[in-house]
Amino acid sequence: MKLEGVELRWVSMPLVSPFRTSFGTQTTRDLLLLKVVTDQAEGWGECVAMAAPLYSEEYIEGAADVLRRYLVPALAAAGPFDASTVATVLEPFHGHRMAKAALEMGVLDAELRAEGRPLSRELGAVHDRVPCGVSVGIMDDLGALLDAVGGYLDEGYVRIKLKIEPGWDVEPVRAVRERFGDDVLLQVDANTAYTLSDARHLARLDPFDLLLIEQPLPEDDLFGHADLARLITTPVCLDESITSARTAAAAIRLGACSVVNIKPGRVGGYLEARRIHDLCVAHSVPVWCGGMLETGLGRAANVALAALPGFTMPGDTSASGRYYATDVTAPFVLDDGYLAVPTGPGLGVEPLPDELAAVTTATDWIPASR
Ligand SMILES: [Mg+2]
């Protein structure tokens, strides 16, 4: 394919309810969408960076800048390309994995649309639907938490994940166990909010039979996670720390995790995400697909990825309605706790023009030649 240009599109989507994690509260999800225009087809990419560098060092305006200044020009200068070459072309530029992932996703979508092939088949999916968990934010009080969890269980979600932070950890887990019983698949996510000196406190979660504790310690503390994993019985899962197949291999080798949360944006794209999946399968490490409050575009791609055989735990691939009253695509709707894997070419979904226009705040066209 030859690149004709990339349209950057800033969208601002109100959340159905505030989403609080250990790093902050979101009431609106601002994100950057990419329309990749090639000589053969158009494809959509979604950059999962947040407005501010709170989850990771990336943020929307940084992603837009590096795309405009370096990534799109490099791809344009590379001559004919396909999705499998994008990461290599962009490799000289350090970091910016979410921006790179968005560009590769758009190229991949365009390529697969041109060839009439669905992303799920390209990635190696073996399921036509995936079980869905839900991520529940930090609440003001336990009553609000129990109401929220009860509502999600009533909707059919098969696994509950509680966001935790110091001061909101053992008690919310205990309350959910007491109210909803030991059969609920339950896990927690600290988003790096603790240190190794909290090990004894985190061990108090052990009696609650959690599936895992996700990213308790800072992103760069693999040794700390390895030490913690020996001090608690709850399995340790890594999210923020896993930025590539290489870091995943190191984490597994060190014993820093026994489960991996795969987020394509965090690791530079869906093709690297598949490599991490393959690596984890080879080491018998279960994986699941995380979420970054994606629109229907990113959600479609995540659901395709989550249908690979190594994704043996329910992911955060929730229905659109978990976050948005109106999505930019036809909404993903929960069916008995599952989402259907799209079957159309590429992502298998497209933006609805009116819905997309309603949430767009700005656009910018980056031509391939200038
Ligand atoms: Mg996480």
Bound molecules: magnesium ion
Structural domains: how many: 2
Work out the helicity level.
25-40%
Helical run tally: 13
Give the SSE string. Answer: EEEHHHHEEHEHEHEHEHEHHEHEHE
- Specify the CATH homologous superfamily of the largest domain: Enolase-like C-terminal domain
Sketch the major β-sheet: 7 strands, parallel
Please tell me what the overall shape is: globular
Mean pLDDT across all amino acids: 97
CATH architecture annotation of the largest domain: Alpha-Beta Barrel
Flag low-confidence runs: none
Q: Tell me the distance between the termini.
A: 19 Å
Structural class: alpha/beta
CATH class of the largest domain: Alpha Beta
Instruction: Compute the number of strand runs.
Output: 13
Radius of gyration of CA atoms, rounded to a whole number = 20 Å
Side by side, the strands of the main sheet go 5-6-7-8-9-10-11
Strand content: 15-25%
Could you outline the blueprint of secondary structure elements for this entry?
Layout: E1 3-21, E2 24-38, E3 42-47, H1 60-77, H2 83-90, H3 97-115, H4 119-123, E4 129-131, E5 133-136, H5 142-155, E6 159-163, H6 170-180, E7 186-189, H7 199-202, E8 213-214, H8 222-231, E9 236-238, H9 245-254, E10 259-262, H10 264-267, H11 270-282, E11 287-289, H12 296-306, E12 338-340, H13 353-359, E13 360-367
Parallel strand pairs: 5-6, 6-7, 7-8, 8-9, 9-10, 10-11
Antiparallel strand pairs: 1-2, 1-13, 2-3, 4-12
The chain binds magnesium ion.
